[in-house]
Amino acid sequence: MNKKISDSAVTHFLEDVTDQISYKPLRPSIHQELESHIKDRIEEYESQGLSLADAERKALRGMGDAIAIGTGLNEAHKIQKSPRLAFITALLLLTGFVLSCFFRWTPEQMSNGYLYYIPGGILLVFTVLKGYPLLIRHRKILASSICLLYLAQIVIFFLSHFSGRRFGVVSTAYFATLLLVPVITVLLYCSRHNRKKFLTAALVCAGTWMLLMYTSGLYLISDTAAAIFLLSILGTVCFMIHRGILSGKKKYLYSCTLAFLVLLGSPLFLTSSGREKIKAFVTPQSAIYTTWDDTYNGILIQELLSRTSLTHGLLLSPEEMMDYGTGAWYFASRDPRHIGIVGIHTDKQQQEFQEKVEAIEKQGGRPRYIHYQADDVTLWDILPQHYHNNYLIAVCIFLFGWLPGLAMIGTIGLFYWILFSYIRRIHGNLASSLAFCCGQCLLWQGVFYLLGNFGYQYAIFPNLPLISEGQLSILLNMLLLGLVFSAYRYDHVIEEPVNYRPITSG
Predict the structure, then answer these.
(1) Angle of helix 117-137 relative to helix 473-489, nearest 10 degrees?
(2) b/e for 474-487, b at 16 or more Cβ within 10 A?
């Protein structure tokens, strides 16, 4: 029917239906869909010989009660809330904020730098409310902006490589690598119907990755970021295959995905630096040379954990703490040159101290300078330098015992269980893929952090999302977590694009 429906009973019916829809941006599409359906019904009845007015009345009677229809549609297409995930997120964020206020373990935090939790929280709320809708509606602008940002990162990378100066590339490259996970997930979803172009782009990106990683990439990107990236991508692609988002024979897709990611991860175990880090991760005791080594910190943490009780904190005598602080407990029977030396404050004793240090260094030793003695030594003196943020779970066990520490681990585990239980409920292909990849990034950071707290540190320490954060990491992790919230929130109200083409340059 070419006639436009006038201000009649049909118009009032449509208004009554759409008034029940709580998510207002969805009202026009529902109005249009119902209007089209009613028009078809009216045309059918008119073809049977009914007048326009009679056809309208009969079509509306067949539709049923407008309020009931609108309520049913609203129930099926309403914004979803996630109270359990919101509660445990707020609890862990508050825990991290309180701990950072209490410990103040960096110069930035000593000058109220712990307030970065505030912009982190603001970014989380903004991403929850606007993140997924912005991604769907402005994906072309976002894609262009992300391309420019990564191009700038690559330029910084090569400037650092050829000049020998880092230009802050280590921290930015770490987080840029993790942010690649959701970027690649969205590109993979967009390109799944045009495999030839995607495979070409994938091969070019893989070649660039391999070139960088086999030259100086591990020095600038970090093995930890690369490992989290590869594990997250592997999990996400397998999830997309399992749900049928990537079509094809599943066994073939699984095999190709695993082989491709093993190839990309080969620098982590084929290069000399990669093999050294894996050796230090699997058998830290075989890679200890001085008290400055991360592997020594891991063995020290394991030793102290073994001496901590279930119900109360670590109890040591001053003499025992001095042995742990100087490293004498480990190096006295192995290589005494690496035992720490207590600093002296008088001029004569300071000169003797310097001469002793120089003599030991000439022999190949690297002793620590110990600025405490048995009469004032504390637990904080004997722990690794960055114990507050790197060993937060272990410190909790040292202070309160194993049971409170296990409760903390259980709470963190509960957060991840709730997170993935919400992700599992997301039905949209793009929404579920995006949420799952963001959850994977958060999960693997937590896994590597937990392993490090039990003495098995792989490369550099990651952050513990929500609890042990830095000024850049909290922005990344709040963005990732916010996208999970947002994808779940708008899963039933935003129609995701199905057949749009991947964005290419040129």
Answers:
(1) 50
(2) bbbbbbbbbbbbbb
Beta bridge partners of residue 160, listed in sequence order: none
CA distance 425 to 85: 13
Cβ-proximal residues to 458 (8 Å cutoff; 6+ apart), any chain: 223, 224, 227, 277, 278, 281, 448, 451, 452
Q: Which residue has the tokens 């939790």?
A: 117
- Residue 457 makes CB contacts below 8 A (sequence gap 6+) with 280, 281, 284, 294, 295, 297, 298, 451
- The reply to whether the predicted model has a pTM over 0.90 is no
Nearest alpha-carbon partner for 52 in 63, 61, 43: 43
Structure tokens at 143: 């894609």
Give the end-to-end CA distance of the chain in Å, rounded to a whole number. 43
* Per-residue tokens: 439: 């959850």
| Cα separation, 116 vs 123, whole angstroms | 11
Residue 325 Cα distances to 383, 398, 451, angstroms: 7, 15, 23
Q: Using pLDDT thresholds of 50, 70 and 90, give the confidence band for residue 104.
A: low
The CA distance from 488 to 132, in Å, is 9
Distance CA 407, CA 409 (A): 5
CA dihedral angle for residue 372, residue 378, residue 383, residue 385, rounded to 10 degrees: -50
- What is the crossing angle of helices 9-18 and 27-47, to 10°? 150
In tens, the pLDDT along 111-161 reads 455 778 889 999 999 999 999 988 888 877 887 787 787 777 777 766 766
The token duo for 139 is 């994906």
CA distance 384 to 452: 12
Q: In 3-state terms, what secondary structure has residue 149? A: helix
CA-to-CA distance for 199 and 183, rounded, in angstroms?
Answer: 16
CA geometry: angle 299, 300, 304, nearest 5 deg: 120
Q: What angle do CA 168, 173, 178 make, to 5 degrees?
A: 145
CB contact set of 107 (below 8 Å; sequence gap of 6+) = 113
Task: Evaluate whether 440 touches 236 at the Cβ level (below 8 Å).
Answer: yes
Q: Which two tokens stand for residue 32?
A: 């249009």
Distances in Å between the alpha carbon of 156 and those of 56, 87, 171, 278?
66, 40, 12, 28
Q: Which two tokens stand for residue 146?
A: 């992300």
Q: Name the one residue in this structure whose structure tokens are 């594990």.
A: 231
pLDDT range class, residue 495, cuts 50, 70, 90 = low
Give the tens place of pLDDT for each residue, 203-233: 877 887 787 777 665 556 788 999 999 999 9
Q: Which CA distances in Å does 49 have to 46, 55, 58?
A: 5, 9, 13
